[in-house]
């Protein structure tokens, strides 16, 4: 028996909110990254091929930025599909966290930054209720990622 991370009602409303933003996964994923790189320029340092890009316009057109934006949204989408099964959810988040901690050496504070930007985007595009229902999901993701980082000795 796998425990649920959120109640059934919370899972349903979070999925409903996410679906509306995931419909345009590449554009919205790109928008999130561009906003992160613009508002937190130090985050660009992890991406060697984004480093030289200064304008938001240039980033928006970049295949690499678009590709990574889509990848981030796909990963979150996998997590959203497994909110009602913590074992499956952890099975997705754990390897992702390990890779970012050990191979990529990404500062874990960046996960919170990216989650907050996703919540902002949701609020702008589909309203505050959606943001509220998805906040629990981002907290769950960030908490779990931080735990993995601790296990990896961060």
TrEMBL record:
Under Enzyme Commission nomenclature, its number is 1.15.1.1
Q: Which residues form the signal peptide?
A: none
What protein is this chain from? superoxide dismutase
Similarity field: Belongs to the globin family.
Q: Where is the Globin domain?
A: 5-150
GO molecular function terms attached to this record: heme binding; iron ion binding; oxygen binding; oxygen carrier activity; superoxide dismutase activity
Q: Which UniProt keywords apply?
A: Heme, Iron, Metal-binding, Oxygen transport, Transport
Annotated catalysed reactions: Fe(III)-heme b-[protein] + nitric oxide + H2O = Fe(II)-heme b-[protein] + nitrite + 2 H(+); 2 superoxide + 2 H(+) = H2O2 + O2; Fe(II)-heme b-[protein] + nitric oxide + O2 = Fe(III)-heme b-[protein] + nitrate; H2O2 + AH2 = A + 2 H2O
Q: What does this protein do?
A: Involved in oxygen transport from the lung to the various peripheral tissues.
Q: Which organism is it from?
A: Rhadina sibilatrix
């Amino acid at each position: 028996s796998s425990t649920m991370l959120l109640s059934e009602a919370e899972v349903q409303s979070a999925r409903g909110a996410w679906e509306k933003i995931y419909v345009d996964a590449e554009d919205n994923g790109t928008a999130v990254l561009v906003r992160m790189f613009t508002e937190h320029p130090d985050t660009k340092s992890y991406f060697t091929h984004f480093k030289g890009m200064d304008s938001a316009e240039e980033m928006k057109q970049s295949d690499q930025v678009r590709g990574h934006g889509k990848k981030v949204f796909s990963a979150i989408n996998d997590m959203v599909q497994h909110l009602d099964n913590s074992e499956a959810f952890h099975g997705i988040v754990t390897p992702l966290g390990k890779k970012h901690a050990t191979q990529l050496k990404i500062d874990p504070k960046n996960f919170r930054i990216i989650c907050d930007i996703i919540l902002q985007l949701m609020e702008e595009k589909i309203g505050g209720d959606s943001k509220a229902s998805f906040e629990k999901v981002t907290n769950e993701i960030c908490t779990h990622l931080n735990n993995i980082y601790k296990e990896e000795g961060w």
